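Good morning C.,

I know you're traveling, so I'll keep this short. The sequence:
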Amino acid sequence: MGGVFLSLSGIMIRHIDQADGWQILFYRSLAYFISLAAILAVQYRSRTIEKFIAIGRPGIYASIVLAVGSVLYIMAMLNTTVANVVFIIGASPLITALAGWLFLKEKITRASFITMLLAIGGIALMFADGFISGGMLGNAFALMMVFMYMLFLLIMRHNRHIDMLPATCLSGLVTAAIAFAFVDDLAVSRSDLILCIALGSVQFGMGFMLLTWGTRYIPAAEVALFSLSESVLNPIWVWLGVNEVPSMLTLAGSAVVLISVVTYSIMAIRRERAIMTRPDQSQSAL
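The tokens, ready to paste straight into the viewer:
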């Protein structure tokens, strides 16, 4: 369900009439911050302020990185096809794993490394489409967004002892501040305002919270696999709703990325389950 909510971004942005990128970002981010802050207030109650203070400097860095990523996401959506954006971003688990290998010395298998290279090849096909169709700027924004997301996860992994959920909430306020600095006029139509608020509270807010809650019950690799529903459904909604049809190069690149991420996730799920069952096996042997 988290992936389904997140997949609504393309069709909702395509139905915005006049609001520009900075106006969308301001109202979307403000709505996201208010929605998530309300949820955190219910969850933490009297400890809410304490939880925000506890994120410290790493949490501030994480919120800024996530805010920049949000800006890049909206700008990517406005400058290339939805399919290009979501499938470039869909390769995030593989690129993040590659960064973990390079910077955190995390081990990866040869098979995982091959899937990473394949995903990069799929992204290259979508960039080739950008050269042809003129969506190169949007593709570049999407790729930069992947690196922001990768940096955010590296900060999270390096500070596992800190509850970073308040930092993700704070990122909404940081994004709104960035948008406010660049926006020319905050006046938008009622329909555009409703869509922008829905983008923040329903599409992004609910989608993010459901994926976060999902990690409490299933391994991270399974969450990554299920969240691919966003990449699959997002282009379908815009195809059905506004007749935005991906090119053959985009479809080919998307297929390569999708197969690579699914393969990587399945391998990761098998490894996690093998690790989880080892204590049981040793106990039964005794």
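Safe travels,
E.
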